[in-house]
Amino acid sequence: METAGRPQDAVVVAIDGPSGTGKSSTSRAVATKLGLRFLDTGAQYRAMTWWMLTNEVDVDDAAAVALASDKPVLVSGTDPLNPTITVDGVDASGPIRTQEVTAAVSAVSAVPEVRARLVELQRTACAESAAAGGIVVEGRDIGTTVLPDATLKVYLTASAQARAARRSGELKGVPGAGQMSVEATREALVRRDAADSGRKTSPLAKADDAIEVDTTELSLEQVIEAIVTLVDEKLKERTTG
Ligand SMILES: Nc1ncnc2c1ncn2[C@@H]1O[C@H](COP(=O)(O)OP(=O)(O)O)[C@@H](O)[C@H]1O
Ligand SMILES: Nc1ccn([C@@H]2O[C@H](COP(=O)(O)OP(=O)(O)O)[C@@H](O)[C@H]2O)c(=O)n1
């Protein structure tokens, strides 16, 4: 019997965790290795935030953000080798990584109307990926809210110091991202994690059935291997019932 492409056979991997734990890099690599699609939901919240800033919506005015939240047309390309994001047809992959967007994104992502809109896009991307075998989706609330029936849920952690060192190393190569010391980067990411964990709607949280992986002492390659192994184990459980 032909089973490929059936939604119930698709592999859905949810990867959540705070900033700099390695969600994007590991998710892309896992999706590439397993031949799955890839979705960076943080990029969508960043794109929404960029649109608000560009259109002079006060990001601290939740009512104004809510009112504008259905205006931007966001499109995410889910090829892990070339993930893309456009806003109103314009490539937003560069502008969404600036410090201005990073500083404003937690306020925008706390607005329930923004979340409702983006969660719908995320579930649609997941449903569309079934024909390709499935998807790796990364963010803050994928296992708890967006895809509670995911095949595998992983919650990545790492010490704040390790995360800050990784992030500030990475930002050195991004034009327009601005330069910050490791200490300033650490303070900014701890502040953002607190805002993301403390919001009312769908906060950053580990799902009860997520497997926690502390990446502080692991190389990127080790984290990728660990997650591929966890997916394999889940698929074996499926076939053995
Ligand atoms: N296990 C790891 N060890 C060392 N560096 C890592 C590890 N995982 C990710 N990185 C690096 O840390 C930076 C942030 O990773 P990223 O995947 O963007 O994290 P997140 O999506 O959780 O914010 C990137 O430069 C990435 O290459
Ligand atoms: N599923 C998600 C993903 C991101 N976000 C928000 O989007 C922001 C940016 O996410 P990101 O994944 O690009 O953050 P980094 O850790 O990569 O800098 C987060 O700080 C959250 O405020 C969210 O609320 N829910």
Helices and strands in order, then pairings?
Layout: E1 11-16, H1 23-34, E2 37-40, H2 41-54, H3 62-68, E3 74-77, E4 84-87, E5 90-91, H4 99-109, H5 112-129, E6 134-139, H6 142-146, E7 152-157, H7 160-171, H8 182-198, E8 211-214, H9 220-240
Parallel strand pairs: 1-6, 1-7, 2-6, 7-8
Antiparallel strand pairs: 3-4, 4-5
Helix pairs in contact: 1-9, 2-4, 2-5, 4-8, 7-8
The structure holds adenosine-5'-diphosphate and cytidine-5'-diphosphate.
- Give the terminus-to-terminus CA distance: 18 Å
Poorly predicted residue ranges: none
Strand content range: 5-15%
- Radius of gyration, in Å, reads 17 Å
CATH architecture designation: 3-Layer(aba) Sandwich
Number of domains: 1
- The top level CATH class name: Alpha Beta
Number of strands: 8
CATH homologous superfamily - what is it?
P-loop containing nucleotide triphosphate hydrolases
Helicity level, as a percent range?
40-55%
Please outline what is shown here:
With 241 residues, this protein is of the alpha/beta class. The chain has a single domain (7-227), classed as P-loop containing nucleotide triphosphate hydrolases (Rossmann fold).
Could you please describe the fold and organization of this structure?
- This protein has one domain: 3-Layer(aba) Sandwich (Rossmann fold).
- Helices cover 49% and strands 15% of the residues.
- The protein contains 9 helices and 8 strands.
- Strands 2-6-1-7-8 form a 5-stranded parallel β-sheet, with helices on both faces. It has a 3-stranded antiparallel β-sheet with strand order 3-4-5, with helices on one face.
- Strand 3 (74-77) and strand 4 form a beta hairpin.
- Helix 2 packs across helix 4 (99-109).
- The longest helix has 21 residues, at 220-240.
- It is globular and about 55 Å long.
- The two termini are 18 Å apart.
- The model has no long low-confidence stretch (mean pLDDT 93).
